[in-house]
Amino acid sequence: MATIGVLALQGAFREHCAAVRRVGHEAVEVRTPANLARVDALILPGGESTTIDKLLDSSGLREPLRRRLEAGMPAFGTCAGLIVLATSAVDGIPGQRPLAAIDLVARRNGFGRQVHSFEAPVAVVGDSTPMIGVFIRAPRIVATGPGVTVIATMGSEPVAAESATIMVASFHPELTDDDRLHRRFCERVAAVVQPV
């Protein structure tokens, strides 16, 4: 069983914790570097990417998190979490510093503002049953690098992707009872966690 941290500075972190527990792993709310030190992986939830960017600094988490990501810690970013993990953010505010953990470019609010929020079927690669994607001020995946694989689409639009250790989704899988992406992430983490 893996210990999955959920960044609990803003956003739907409780829903992510519940999804992690439903798929059989321990969930830990991460607010401090000490919390981060005890987890095998981290989920970065939605919220407001510029606010999360500032909170990473005020909580003291930015540098410990950057070091863990560079050392290969798995992470899963949803909505704003995708922007935080991206290489760069189109339409980001001046001074916003994505962590460059996955080689992709994100566009903030790429699907529109709050009033344009919607739900739509999302096709998961290798799975014949679509899942419902909840898109709330969702970012668009504008471009991906050679080491990034698209794992879900809405029509022809990529809405989830992964690299060696990082997974991201434009939408909010934690706001439905479909745990396929959480299960996929937790299984990947469990496969690389060294037993004590």
Concise overview:
With 196 residues, the protein is of the alpha/beta class.
Describe the 3D structure.
With 196 residues, the protein is of the alpha/beta class. The protein has a single domain, classed as Class I glutamine amidotransferase (GATase) domain (Rossmann fold). 27% of the residues lie in helices and 30% in strands. It is built from six helices and twelve strands. It has helices spanning 13-22, 33-37, 49-58, 62-70, 80-85, 180-192; strands spanning 3-7, 26-30, 41-44, 75-78, 88-90, 104-107, 118-124, 131-135, 140-144, 149-154, 157-162, 166-169. The strands form two sheets. A nine-stranded mixed beta sheet has the order 2-1-3-4-12-11-10-7-8. It has a three-stranded mixed beta sheet with strand order 5-6-9. The model has no long low-confidence stretch (mean pLDDT 91).
* Global structural class: alpha/beta
- SS summary, helix count: 6
Given this structure, which CATH class is correct? Alpha Beta
Q: Helicity, in percent?
A: 25-40%
Name the CATH superfamily assignment: Class I glutamine amidotransferase (GATase) domain
Give the rounded overall mean pLDDT.
91
CATH topology: Rossmann fold
Task: Give the strand line-up of the largest sheet.
Answer: 2-1-3-4-12-11-10-7-8
How many β strands by DSSP? 12
**Main pleated-sheet profile:** 9 strands, mixed
- Per CATH, the architecture is 3-Layer(aba) Sandwich
Q: Could you give the order of the helices and strands?
A: EHEHEHHEHEEEEEEEEH
Identify the overall geometry.
Answer: globular
> Which band does the percent of strand residues land in?
25-35%
* Rg, alpha carbons: 15 Å
Poorly predicted runs are: none
Ends: how far apart?
11 Å
For the record, the count of structural domains works out to 1
